Amino acid sequence: MSAIYLGLMSGTSMDGIDAALVDFSQSSRPQLLDYISVPYSQQLLDELHQLNLPVNNELERALIAGRKVGRAFAAAANQLLQQNKLTSDLVVAIGSHGQTIRHQPGGDNGFSLQIGCAHTIACESKIDVVADFRNTDIALGGQGAPLVPAFHQAVFADQKLNRAVVNIGGIANISYLPANNPDGVQGFDTGPGNTLMDAWCLLHTGQPYDKDGKLAAQGKCNQLLLQALMQHPYLAKIAPKSTGRDEFHLDWLQQLLVSYAAISVADVQATLLQFTAHSIAADLVRLDVDEVYICGGGAYNSSLMAALQQQMQTKLVTTTADLGINPDAVEAMAFAWLAFAYDNNLTGNVPAVTGASGNAILGAKYKAPR
């Protein structure tokens, strides 16, 4: 019987749909069979960016965009299957994160909204889909995020060394994996990953991201602006905590920049890079970490990796490639794992991480037509 699952993920950076094909037949560790990243069309990307802030008629626009995202996710899944000469009947299920457009988990009526119609994915891929992973945890009083620490523990934990896995997508999050102590796992969003850098770069260069940190390398960090950025109230919150574009966005940055009229574009980019590095390192140094492994798009920004290494001094800072997993594939693998966990009645959340009142099997299943 097949034990192959497919994970689909698009993070807050919206730089593409990550699709991972994962084999769970070996109980010791899931095996990544293949991975692809497929960009959104420019038209759909523009629609999604608009939906991250309040817009007119946003309910209808979100539902229409959700169908489009569903089709794009299904196309990515089908492309990955074709690339590996696999038919849909060999995949047990797809774990689909969807595309986050709102994440407001606090209060009595907290919620997290990921669009990407699971019915559409199931119909167009002919594979059962497990989706909507966050809201059960939120209903239990949790943040609904981060959801990957349980997967990171299963795949990356070490018997002797305390490790941290840091995903740097649009938002950055940490999974702290103490040696030989699964009950001690911690995880939370640290704050911005690439989202502010990407937005600033797109605004001033027309490029969707600062490739290898080249624009930032042309500038110099403005210490006064960095101090102002580090005063964002989210950074002072105690975990469990999670955040998103709702809090860290271009409008917020531009309001701050009113007091820094003379600062150059490159200096702002250099400062934003240091903001990401400082906010991540500020949380890492509070933990007893021996090694730091980076995944997500930030793993390919050599300027950011150097800044993190400088902040962490003698601690090892490298990427999950050194542990045998492509940094781009980690998050998509995690959602394949969450679909596997759903099917096998395994806990998908870590209450100590999310703040939920108890363990939960996460997600809901959408059956493919037979």
The CATH class name of the largest domain reads: Alpha Beta
Element-level helix/strand string: EEEHHEEHEHHEEEHHHHHEHEHHE
Average pLDDT? 95
Radius of gyration: 20 Å
CATH topology of the largest domain: Nucleotidyltransferase, domain 5
Strand content: 15-25%
GO molecular function, one term: kinase activity
Protein name: Anhydro-N-acetylmuramic acid kinase
GO biological process, one term: 1,6-anhydro-N-acetyl-beta-muramic acid catabolic process
EC number: 2.7.1.170
Describe this structure in words.
Strands 1, 2, 3, 4, 5, 6 and 12 form a 7-stranded mixed sheet that branches. This protein folds into 2 domains: 4-144 and 329-366, Nucleotidyltransferase, domain 5 (2-Layer Sandwich); 149-323, 2-Layer Sandwich (Nucleotidyltransferase, domain 5), CATH 3.30.420.40. With 370 residues, it is of the alpha/beta class. Helices cover 37% and strands 21% of the residues. The protein has helices at residues 42-51, 58-83, 118-125, 135-139, 149-156, 195-205, 214-218, 223-229, 250-257, 265-284, 302-312, 330-343, 351-354, and strands spanning 4-10, 17-23, 31-38, 91-104, 111-115, 129-131, 163-168, 171-177, 186-192, 291-295, 316-319, 364-366. Keywords: ATP-binding, Carbohydrate metabolism, Kinase, Nucleotide-binding, Transferase.
